[in-house]
Each structure stands twice: as C-alpha cells, then as structure tokens.
Design a protein that fits this description.
α1 packs across α4, α1 crosses α5 and α3 runs parallel beside α5. The termini are far apart. It is built from seven helices and no strands. It is flat.
C-alpha cells in the first residue's frame, strides 16, 4: 500500500504542475489574443457569451477531463484562455487531479507488477505480451492515419475541381 500512496502522491504533484502550467499558458495566450490581431474576435458578443459559460460551468468539465486521455490538456488550456476564475478552477483541478493520480497509481502499478512477474517467471510470455501490445498500438496508429488521409481518387477530384474553377 505504501508504494501506491507514494506513486499517487508523486503523480498528484506532477498532474497539478502540468495541468496548472497548461492553465497558466492558456491564460497568457488568451491575454495576448485579446491585445493582438484577435482582439476584434474576442470582443464579439458570441465570444463573450461562450467565455461566461465556461467561466461559470467549466469546472465540472475540467474535473471530468482528467478521466480522459488527450482531452485534459485542451480543457485546461481552454479554461485558462477563457479566464476561468481560480476559485472555480482550483477545486476542479484538485479533485480531477486526485482521481487521475489514484487511477494511474493503482492501475499503472498493477500492470507493471503483472509484467514484472511475467518477465521474471515466464520471460517468453512477458516478451510476447509486450510485442502484442506494441503491435496493437501500431495497428491503431496506422488505421487512424489511413482513415484520416485522403485517398488518391479524392486528391485527383479536388485537383480537377480546382482546375475547372480557374
């Protein structure tokens, strides 16, 4: 249990620094956008309404975002750039960060322990498990890239349409 508590504590500090830093960078980026080329856009009525909604109701989204993969950075940056007040942001950060740290500490240590035992007792199975995991990750990446990339027929149609328009 001490390992889990130590891992959770370390992960909690890491997530607080990382997510809080992302919020701060978002805050600075939002301040720069309000003074730069985007000042007209950020002063529009629609933008102000969205900003007020995020400031008021964004805290639950921030807390829940820690249970997702890849979404939490965007949410923390957006919360900062939309100037979510710290009294609303910090409790969401503390609660969401604690949930994230506990999940990763328990599940992460569990997976590492199982892999360690597998390598120690049955090296062939350990290597096989890691190979299967890597192949699965590579397969997902290749599938997503192929799905996102336009086919050669789509590219030719786009080029023909552009040539016809000119």
């Amino acid at each position: 249990m001490n390992r889990i508590a130590l891992a959770a504590g370390a992960l909690y500090v890491i997530v607080l620094l990382r997510a809080g830093g992302t919020f701060a960078v978002g805050w600075l980026a939002g301040a720069g956008a309000r003074r730069g080329r985007f000042a007209g856009l950020t002063s529009s009525a629609k933008f102000r309404r969205a900003e007020r909604a995020i400031q008021r109701w964004g805290a639950p989204v921030v807390a829940v975002s820690f249970l997702t993969v890849g979404f939490q950075t965007a949410v923390n940056f957006l919360a900062g750039s939309m100037r979510m007040p710290l009294p609303r942001y910090l409790p969401a950060l503390f609660v969401g960060g604690a949930a994230w740290a506990l999940i990763y500490a328990t599940a992460g240590l569990g997976v590492l322990e199982v892999l360690g035992r597998l390598f120690a007792e049955r090296t062939v199975f350990g290597v096989s498990a890691v190979a299967v995991l890597l192949l699965a990750v590579c397969g997902v990446v290749v599938y997503r890239r192929r799905k996102a990339a336009p086919s050669s027929a789509d590219t030719a149609d786009t080029a023909d349409t552009a040539a016809d328009a000119a």
